[in-house]
Write a structure and sequence with these properties.
By secondary structure, the protein is an alpha+beta fold. The protein has helices at 8-16, 26-37, 40-53, 58-63, 65-78, 102-120, 168-185, 195-206, 251-259, 269-281, 283-287, 293-304, 311-337, 344-356, 360-366, and strands at 2-4, 81-86, 123-124, 136-139, 142-146, 149-153, 158-159, 220-222, 231-234, 237-240, 247-249.
Length: 367
């Protein structure tokens, strides 16, 4: 995983600790900071020299003129950039079975964002327009990554976790944006998720020895960590963050983590799944000629009723419910470790039951 300096105080401490001042890459990092700060950039360089040369305690240095100036500049810098550094990945961390190396995770985060940003010009979209028009999915702008430090531009928006709109229109906007993200990711060169390794690891966390339930075949390049904290809302834009676990895998995983996690929407989940399935088949087909979310919804409704008899959709739903099993198992371990009462094991049971309802496609394939 990567550690984000998520407050001005933590970023200030990083300067005092030498994390951003005593590195061979210091000049490169400061050059990026200077570009963001303008005239304050040169002053920041002087302050870093002062940090390296002082022999005062941290508290005493903070009271000096240099310390006060540095804190003021860091406050400004925090509003412009996000700074991350490599952090060790614990066994209980999500995605440990995908990549357990903090260094490669941070580098992948930068590389994927850079590829998406410079190929698409930041926007992953099929239509543009005002707030009432179809959504624009965006990616962060990566600025620098070297020696375990990753700097990206701070993007506007409220984390989905704190966003209060749970209505149908916004949910459809979010579903469509995930499709745009997956469309952009399909050109990314990546590894492949080993689902057997993942399942065995999660089973081990729970102290149980379970048989790997199903041999999943990856259906695309996916985010793999698309929880509500990794989406920023600034309508009409939705910005996606943290690409450290991107790999070929099951697209259903991104849907599960986003729509079946800590937040739920005031919309039937199966309807959203059908919308995702249809959008994913051909995003331009369903957005063509539509000027807003309502038009997009009306276009989709023409086809939703036809899906229940489709073997391909049955398989999509079977895979969706089977992927719920290990993801809810991990969530149970994660929440229990934090002392949070939860019903994640009930979700595992429900997922198993629901998967059985979609087994028809498998039987017919054998015939």
């Amino acid at each position: 995983m990567s550690l984000e300096y998520d407050s001005p105080e933590k970023l200030y401490d990083a300067f005092l600790d030498g994390i951003l001042t005593d590195r061979s890459s210091r000049n490169s990092v400061l050059r990026v900071f200077s570009n963001c700060l303008g005239d304050d950039g040169e002053v920041l360089d002087e302050m870093c020299v002062a940090v390296r040369g002082h022999d005062l305690s941290r508290e005493d240095f903070g009271k000096t003129h240099q310390g006060l100036v540095l804190r003021d500049i860091v406050d400004k810098l925090f509003g412009k950039v996000v700074v991350k550094k490599v952090e060790a990945v614990s066994e209980g961390e999500f995605g440990y079975g995908i990549d357990d190396c903090g260094k490669s995770r941070l580098r992948r985060d930068y590389d994927v964002a850079r590829s998406l940003f410079y190929r698409s010009g930041q926007d992953l979209l099929f239509e543009t327009g005002s707030c009432d028009c179809l959504p624009i999915a965006r990616v962060v702008e990566p600025l620098f990554c070297e020696e375990g430090i990753y700097v990206q531009r701070r993007m506007a928006g409220v984390p989905l976790l704190k966003y209060e709109d749970r209505g149908e229109e916004f949910a459809l906007r979010l579903v469509y944006s995930v499709v745009l993200l997956h469309s952009g990711l399909k050109e990314i060169r990546s590894g492949v998720v080993d689902y057997k390794k993942e399942f065995n690891h999660i089973s081990g966390l729970l102290g149980v020895d379970l048989k790997f339930p199903f041999d999943f075949v990856p259906n695309g390049v996916v985010h793999n960590s698309l929880h509500p904290g990794n989406v920023l809302i600034d309508l009409p834009d939705l910005t996606f963050l943290d690409f450290e676990l991107v790999a070929k895998g099951m697209k259903q995983d991104d849907f599960i983590r986003l729509f079946n996690g800590p937040i739920r929407f005031d919309v039937d989940n199966d309807f959203l799944l059908k919308c995702y399935y249809l959008f994913n088949l051909n995003p331009r087909r369903f957005s063509g000629g539509q000027e807003n979310i309502a038009g997009l919804r009306n276009n989709v409704l023409k086809y939703v009723g036809r899906l229940d008899g489709s073997d391909k959709f049955q398989k999509f739903m079977f895979d969706y419910h089977m992927r719920r099993v290990p993801l809810h198992m991990w969530a149970h371990h994660h929440l229990t470790g934090k002392g949070v009462p939860n019903t994640q094991l009930d979700e595992v049971v429900d997922a198993t039951f629901q998967a059985e309802q979609y087994c028809g496609w498998w039987d017919r394939r054998k015939v």
